[in-house]
Amino acid sequence: MTNPLKQGSTIGILGGGQLGRMLAIAASKLGFKTHIYEPGKNPPASQVANKVTTAAYEDTNALIMFANEVDVITFEFENIPETALNTLETTREVLPARNALATSQDRITEKKFLEKLGLKVAPYANINTQTDLLSALATVGAPSIMKTRRFGYDGKGQVRLKEVDDGYTAWEELGKTPCVLEGLIDFRKEVSVIGARNQSGEVVCFDPGENIHKNGILHTTNVPADITSSQRMDAVLLTGKILNALDYVGVMGIELFVTAEELLINEIAPRVHNSGHWTQNGCVIDQFEQHIRAISGWHLGDGKRHSNVLMTNLIGAEVLEVDTLSKDTSIGIHLYGKEIVKPGRKMGHINKILANN
Fold first, then answer.
1. CATH classification of 10-94, choosing from 3.40.50.20, 3.40.50.170, 3.40.50.300, 3.90.960.10?
2. Nearest 10 degrees: Cα torsion 82, 85, 86, 89
3. How far apart are CA 78 and CA 94, in angstroms?
4. What are the angstrom distances between the C-alpha of 272 and each of 61, 227, 277, 289, 323?
5. 130-139 vs 166-173: helix axis angle to the nearest 10?
6. What residue ranges in 42-84 does DSSP mark as E strands?
7. Residue 276: C-alpha distances to residues 15, 83, 268, 307, 310 (Å)
8. What would the pLDDT profile of 136-188 be if each residue is shown by its tens digit?
9. Looking only at Cα atoms, what is the longest distance across the chain?
10. Cis preceding linkage at 39, omega within 30
11. How far is CA 320 from the centre of its chain?
C-alpha cells in the first residue's frame, strides 16, 4: 500500500482486547471504520468497533471473509499463528509486517537480531534439552529468570531462579518447552520508548517513560523518566535503529534496563504498548493515533509531550475505586469495558497530570 487510506476505509484489527479497543477509538477519530477479528465472545473492542468477526485463527474461511472486508490489517498482540498470516496476506496487507512478528515471537530470535544490530542484551542461554539446561545453568547461573521462548506476557511463562538448583524444577514447571535463561541485571531502573515509523520511513519517538512492575505486571509509568539527556538520546536512537532495520510500519514498544554504564534491551513489542498509555493525556497525538496514522499511509504526529504524566494500571478490584478517582480533576480515566473483575486482570488505567512540560 503506497497511497493514504481514504476516509471511510476499514481497518481490520486482529485481537479484541483493550489495545484493540483503543486502536478502534483512535481509528474512528480519524474517520476510519474498524473490523475486529477475535476468537473470544464479546471482547472489549467489540463495544467500539463497526464490526466483529468471532472465529478461531484456524478458521480459514472466516479469515478470508474478514480480509475481503477490510482495507488493511493490523494487530494488538504478537502471538498470531503463522498459518493465519499466510491466509490473510494472500488478500490484504498486514502491518507491521510479519518479519517484526517473527522476530518478537521468539525470545532467542529477538536477542540474536538485536545483537546483530550491535545492541546489548542481558546474558542469556538457549534451552531445548536437558544438556542445554545444564550448560545454561553453568554459564548464566543464578539469580536468573527462565522464560519460555514463546507466548509469555505479564509475568506468565517465566520462573525466577534464586539458586542454580532451582533450574531443574523451573524447567519442569514450564513444561520442558524451549526456554531461555536470562541473567538478572543490576539495573537502576527500567524505561521504555514508544517509537513509530510510517511507510515513507519517517520515524517519531515519544519520551522515554520509567516503569515499575508488581507481580510481573506493569504498575506505573512515569514520564519523563529520571535519566540523563545522553541516556534519553541513546534510547531514542536505538529505537529508531530497530524500526529502520525491520523496515517497520506502525508503533513499537522497546523496554530497556538502565545500568550504571549502559542501556540493555529487555524486549521489543511490535504493537502499541501498555507503557505508552500515558501519551493519551500527555501528548496531542497519542500512541494509538500514531499507529493508525502509520499503517494508513499518513504523516506521523510529532509526539511531543506537553505534560508530565504518571500512568497507573487498574488491576482487578482497583477498578472499583473509579468513583473516588473521578473526583481528582488531574486524572484521565480509561476503562476497558470488561464485565468480570479478576485478580491480576487489567481493567483500565489512569493518567495523572503532574505538571506542564
1. 3.40.50.20
2. -160
3. 13
4. 28, 23, 9, 10, 28
5. 130
6. 51-54, 72-75
7. 18, 30, 13, 14, 11
8. 899 998 899 999 988 766 557 889 999 988 888 888 999 889 999 999 888 99
9. 59
10. no
11. 26
pLDDT for position 355? 74
CATH superfamily for domain 189-356: ATP-grasp fold, B domain (3.30.470.20)
Q: What is the pTM of this model?
A: 0.93
Residue 326 identity: S
What confidence tier does 4 reach under pLDDT thresholds 50, 70, 90?
A: very high
DSSP annotation of 227: -
pLDDT tens profile 95-122: 999 899 989 889 999 999 999 999 999 9
- Give per-residue pLDDT as tens, 57-74: 999 999 999 999 999 999
Average of pLDDT values for 235-241? 97
Provide the mean pLDDT of the chain: 94
Say which residue the cell 511531543 belongs to. Answer: 304
- Angle subtended by helix axes 287-295 and 18-29, to nearest 10: 70
Residues of the chain with CATH 3.30.470.20: 189-356
Grid cell listed for 339: 464485565
What's the pLDDT score for residue 97? 92
- The CATH number assigned to the domain with range 123-183 reads 3.30.1490.20
